[in-house]
Amino acid sequence: MVDSAKQKRQGRKRRHNRLRRKIHGSSNRPRLAVFRSNRNISAQIIDDEKGHTLAAASSLEPEIRTSGTKGIEAAEKVGQLVGQRAKAAGIDTIVFDRGGLKYHGRVAAVANAAREAGLEF
């Protein structure tokens, strides 16, 4: 019998590989990659041509962690923070990479907060 957690993980990896064939970040339009675990969420803005992370934010950062927010509220703060850091780095437009996850809940909250912070995608 196959472990259901392993099966879910493999399905997400398959979906992510399928998405990554189409989504590619460049220096003009980098990729906003979202990673979601059971407890935390993180987002990175990546230039795939150079292989550099240009901006990043996570719910593990002290300013978010000490505020006591969890779930969608923490995801919104991560989206705002990564949006502000991207604007400071001179990034206006991005490509959104949901990482094989559904565009729903915490993933959508990061995207919406990044849009509100001024990023276009």
Keywords, please?
Nucleotidyltransferase, domain 5; globular; 43% helix; alpha+beta; 4-stranded mixed β-sheet; 4 strands
List the helices and strands and how they pair.
Elements: H1 4-22, E1 31-36, E2 41-47, E3 52-58, H2 62-65, H3 71-88, E4 95-97, H4 106-116
Parallel strand pairs: 1-4
Antiparallel strand pairs: 1-2, 2-3
Helix pairs in contact: 3-4
Commentary on this structure:
The protein is α+β, with helices and mostly antiparallel strands. The protein has one domain: Nucleotidyltransferase, domain 5 (2-Layer Sandwich), CATH 3.30.420. A four-stranded mixed beta sheet has the order 3-2-1-4.
In short:
This protein has 121 residues and is α+β, with helices and mostly antiparallel strands. It has helices at residues 4-22, 62-65, 71-88, 106-116; strands at residues 31-36, 41-47, 52-58, 95-97.
What is the count of DSSP helices, taking H or I runs of 4+ residues? 4
How confident is the prediction overall: mean pLDDT? 94
What is the molecular shape?
Answer: globular
Strands ordered across the widest β-sheet: 3-2-1-4
Order of helices and strands: HEEEHHEH
* Total domains: 1
